[in-house]
Amino acid sequence: MNVLEVKNLSVQYPGAEGASEIVKDISFTVEEGGITGIVGQSGSGKSTAMLAVMGLLDGRASVQYGQITVKGKAPVPGRNIAMIFQDSLSCLNPSVKIGRQITETVRMRKGCGRKEAAARAEELLETVGIRNPALRMRQYPFELSGGMRQRVVLAIALACEPDLIIADEPTTALDAVVQAQILQLLRRIVRETGTALLLVSHDMGVTAAMCRNVYVMHGGRIIEEGAAEDIFYDPSEGYTRQLLKDAKGGRLREREKRNVDDPANREDALIRMAHVTKIFDADEGIRDVSLEIRKGEILALVGESGSGKTTAARILTGMIREDKGRLYYRGQILQRGRRMDSFGGKVQMVFQDPYASLNPCLTVRQALSEALDAAAGLAGRGAVDGRTAGHRLTDQEKEERIRKILALTGLSYSDADRYPHAFSGGQRQRIGIARALITEPEVLVCDEAISSLDATTREQILELIFRVQRKIGFACLFISHDMHVVRRISDRIAVMYGGQIVETGRTKKVCSDPWHPYTKLLLEAVPEPDPVRAKKIKSGPVKEAAGTDLPDAAGGCCPFAGRCGYALECCRRERPEQYVFGDRGVSCLLYSDEHSGRRSSAYRMTSQI
């Protein structure tokens, strides 16, 4: 039996040159108690179609259809149909506690009293894997991690007791481990409650892991449909084949890796962090972090949301100050108060959200020109070794720089006079990269710069970074939670957990033979674009991590001990040091002589997990 039936759905928006048709006469169904997927690039019309089904499009949209029914009735949001959106923070009221937001939904649906609704809310939080639900009900959304907020949104959806849940990119912003937990949770809820699930995603791995039937959208149309195995193993459309190729990394050429083991290269550190600590409220931040970025290399920094990756990047770029530790640029200590001046514009950053990182009131030319002026001003105050002078470019020199960087990043010179709203997400990210590279930096920091992009656009941006790096030769700190991308793009990798670096080494070695239990968990949680292999992903417990419940987690124990299947008794009492073996470093007591036995000088360390 079909829970959802949609026939001949079209959506149009008025424009200066006539109506623009975003969704073009599509039809699809969702089976009862099953999971159906809709995949396609950003801009293919997936989300617009879902909002039309929910009746949530604004008044400008013209929606036409032959039939939209949920179990033979019209869809009623909050009754027989519910929706989970990509950005959980924007879905929750930031000024209202979690418990009240869930209980209000329960009372509206069931017409019960506050006490009964509160009990049901705690039960729902327990169902979606949140530990200590009574505590969480007293907290505000900003006090929860991204994964926990997404669980709360799911609990609110379940409070509606719907026949169908539409999940629109529910795991895009989550790291691999939390994503796997949310996917496992969704599967369990479908199995135990009989609620049907319509999963909308541009992630072919997630779709392969979850869905029984799949629809492929392109240009507002459904161009292919069928069982997941047929779509993934024998696609009939060239567009579907390209999606799968991009998801597997088929477009990106193999990068020529540097010999990072060469002692000469180890002395080429442009920026080095030494025992840096930065603690915010609630004891969050980074502790005793040491890492270096060498000339011409790509260093990947990976870890789950809240592990401290962005904090480390912001300290490294001078946006925030560390509490303790030292930073070195070209071998010289950087003073905390003059860090941006010392860099002289030679360290630049590309941010995660291409929509929020550009000023909507500035044209591309104005944004690029502003970046050049800012870099010249910083250089004028004196870089650390006097290499840069405060020379401000003439208008003609600026224009030539703008022309060259637009061509280098795959944009047209005619784009210079357009505003950000006129570009797609991928094009905006190209503008962000152009703005960072126009100052000719020595170090480029990419903070989750491709996490919100679909597979095809992601491959284009990665190819762009590779191509420009080969031409310019900058070093790059590439922050990501996507292990597929990291293993292909980087020379070396540093893995963070709980504000600490837990493993470092050459990317190929770390990804093929992880030494730290958390690194192994990260790698096992990545879904492949293959229905058989993707359904075998491992996520660990569905409940939120219990590691924070350990005594003195900040300094008296291993931060991963509460989630580790290899934990020793000493892991709950002692904080591991960084144990170095050749080019590998690992913070795990399994590698200490004190707890694992003294080894001979000739012993060659291997993975202990």
Automatic annotation (TrEMBL):
This is ABC transporter ATP-binding protein. It is a peripheral membrane protein. PANTHER family: ATPASE AAA-TYPE CORE DOMAIN-CONTAINING PROTEIN, OLIGOPEPTIDE TRANSPORT ATP-BINDING PROTEIN APPD. One of its GO terms (cellular component) is plasma membrane. It comes from Candidatus Mediterraneibacter quadrami. InterPro entries: AAA+_ATPase, ABC_Ni/Peptide_Import, ABC_transporter-like_ATP-bd, ABC_transporter-like_CS, Oligopep_ABC_C, P-loop_NTPase. Residues 4-244, 271-523 form the ABC transporter domain. GO terms for biological process: peptide transport. It comes from the Bacteria. CDD domains: ABC_NikE_OppD_transporters. It is found in: Cell membrane. One of its GO terms (molecular function) is ATP binding.
